Amino acid sequence: MLQFFCLHILGDFKVFNLLRYITFRTMGAILTALIISFCLGKPIIAWLKSKQKQGQPIRSDGPESHLVTKKGTPTMGGCLILLAVSISTLLWGDLENPFLWIVLLVTLGFGALGAMDDYKKLTKNSHHGISGKTKLLGQTILAISAAYASAHYTDASLAHSLTFPFFKDFILNLSWFFYPWAALVVVGSSNAVNLTDGLDGLAIVPVMICSVCFTIIAYLVGNHVFASYLQLHYVVNVGEVCIFLGSLIGAGFGFLWFNAPPAKVFMGDTGSLAAGGALGTIALITKHEFVLCIIGGLFVLEAVSVILQVVYYKLTKKRIFLMAPIHHHFEKLGWAESTVVIRFWIIASILALVGLATLKIR
Q1: First to last CA, the chain
Q2: Are strands 161-164 and 167-173 parallel, antiparallel or unpaired?
């Protein structure tokens, strides 16, 4: 919006030429989302507290300390993230770019689905929200819609194709299988972030780390010169999603201010499903789905731990972990919550560096 207004209406002022640069607008988006989060954080949390007398329902079979330390903490703090991201993206982004709208609308769609889940949990005073089938159906529809739209605006040679890290020339044309693949990536990413969101600050920092990495990836893939130099597959106009990612980074920092231990608010499914859906969609349109599995390896670990626990228990009636997702396993072993969170942040940072290294190793 700012780009259109300043360049078309105030174009005589040379200083506004800075708005032509994605890097400048990304920095502006980060700062704007951060300021919005700081300004609106307290009133939104106060409003959530007034509506949620008992706060987020706490699992009775979870770590015993949670029944004391997290009782009464409001959820649905993801509303703050979504509000900051939306305003900042619309302010700094090129609103004529289709990829920007695809990512933003999918994020809001997943956020709305998460808000429905959070609301049902609150009204039932239970950690069980909408049914798994209903949630999965909604996520799948959103994911396939995003895949269809992104394929429409992507060059035909890449639209339905799958690329691989470490291999510069190998491209696999999935044809119509691209849509089930897209659903797997986006829905899997969304639910993996959701499963990670169990401790104060545990999910939001890896989300920001992934966002930083994909800001770099989107900028390089969307720039013909850099894409050619690094032998990446060039995707026209995809660099504009850097604005969205910058907004997510800024909103993440602002949310972390209130979510740092002891948390004053939880993001809930409203935030976690939206953030995961956004990362999955961006990986899809930048053609770096497998790199997301590396950079977001912490989310993969959390999701796999739940899958293994469920499958193993059904087969043997025994458990692999003391509790799943795996961060609760370490809590049950006696690790302090802050220890689990910081060590998982370190793991996420290492995996991010490994993921970024794939850009050069071709």
Answers
A1: 38
A2: antiparallel
CA distance 222 to 236: 6
Contact 32, 251 (CB under 8 A): no
Q: How far is CA 47 from CA 57, 72, 77, 111, 118, in A?
A: 18, 14, 11, 18, 15
CB atoms within 10 A of CB 117: 23
**Residue burial 198-223, b: 16+ Cβ < 10 Å; e: rest:** bbbbbbbbbbbbbbbbbbebbbbbbb
pLDDT score for 207: 97
pTM (whole model) above 0.85: yes
Closest CA to 77 of 264, 279, 277, 207: 264
Give the residue, 133 or 210, on which the prediction is more confident: 210
3-state secondary structure of 168: strand
Signed CA dihedral, 343, 344, 345, 351: sign only? positive
Looking at this protein, which amino acid is placed at residue 62? G
Instruction: Compute the distance between CA of residue 220 and CA of residue 275 in angstroms, rounded to an integer.
Output: 22
Q: What percent of the chain has pLDDT over 90?
A: 72
pLDDT of residue 51: 84
* Interval 173-204: pLDDT, tens: 999 999 999 999 999 999 999 999 988 899 99
What span, in angstroms and rounded, lies between the C-alpha atoms of 195 and 220? 30
Distance CA 357, CA 228 (A): 17
DSSP 15-53: GGGGGG-HHHHHHHHHHHHHHHHHHHHHHHHHHHHHH-S
Q: What six digits make up the tokens of 266?
A: 């939880």
Q: How far is CA 353 from each of CA 280, 297, 305, rounded to the nearest angstrom?
A: 19, 11, 23
Cα–Cα distance between 326 and 344 in angstroms, integer?
Answer: 11
CA 243/CA 90 separation, integer angstroms? 9
Q: How far is 103 from 286, CA to CA, in rounded Å?
A: 12
Give yes or no for residue 61 having a pLDDT over 60.
no
pLDDT (tens digit per residue) in 262-284: 889 999 999 999 999 999 999 99
